[in-house]
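Possible regression after last week's pipeline update?

I re-ran a chain I had predicted before the update to compare outputs. Posting the input and the new output here so someone can diff against the archived version. Not blocking, just want to make sure nothing changed silently.
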Amino acid sequence: MTRVGVVGAGPAGAGAAYALRESSAEVTVLEKSRGVCGRAATRRRGDCRYDHGANYVKVDERTEQLLRDLGEDGLETVDGPVWTFDRDGEVTPGDRQETKYTWRSGITQFAKRLFDRSNAEVRLETRIEDLVRDGGWVLRDAGGERHGPFDRVLLTPPAPQTAALLDGADWEGEARVSLQAAAETVPYRTIRTVVCHYPFPVDLPWYALLNVDREHEIGWLSREECKPGHVPAGESLFVVQMAPDWSREHYDDDLEQVAPAVTAAVADLVNDERLRDPDWVDDQGWRYALPDAAADAEACRRGEPAGLYVAGDWVAGEGRIHRALWNGVEVGERIAASL
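New output (post-update):
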């Protein structure tokens, strides 16, 4: 039986595992975190659930069909439009309206359902640090344990982390150098998310605000209570994704240090002084949140004759869940065809 190793259980890794579900491959997915779906992550605190990375799944026709094929139980649309604002905090209504999907139990359901319908074994809390060519591909984790050998390996971490794996790989050749160089060229935006909870309702006509000129300290502000089943009635929960420059500058600051500045910015943008004083806050940093360009497509495929594949939003060229997913599916189909 052909063995396939997948590094990363985000949308691309889940898409590849799903694409391989009817193949003869034995698929093992190795994920550094405690859960699946990568930046499309959900947390729970008290009676609140919140998607603190990717906020929803934007759909085209085939993505919507896939969501329904995976099971419509718990699948929900997000109520309210996405409006925009500029560097001065001037809000413009009605510019962004699209069907937005999540699940009552959170956006991580997307990857969970894909993996449930695959035959993959998912090993969580397994951080891969070394890639070795040794009678096949061997992946070595941070604890020194070896996984494999695999006949095919798919790398789905963000481009800088993929480049670092390739840089330390025990694999010589022009293909590795070319693939590593392609990954190293992809620019990324850093995002720090701060979540603010309020024990009272906030009446607003929008689900989210998006900064369109990238010159405000807030990049994205959304209301989790617009998602059915996420926030109890009579409460409000804001997901605040700070702009890349702000996020890089304050990435390692303690939450207690940055929270007052964040909530002040939210209060000013929404024009509601009550929002300066949440009853609790949470946060998460994404050093490699969103790619701003795609890697060279030809270079990304140069490892495939040796059984090494790459996938993810940086290969697709857009930081959207559905783009990473379908890139993973396409690469998974190529792996299946190669078996």
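Follow-up from reviewer: compared with the archived run. The chain has two domains: 3-41+109-186+293-338, 77-103+188-291. Marking as no regression found.
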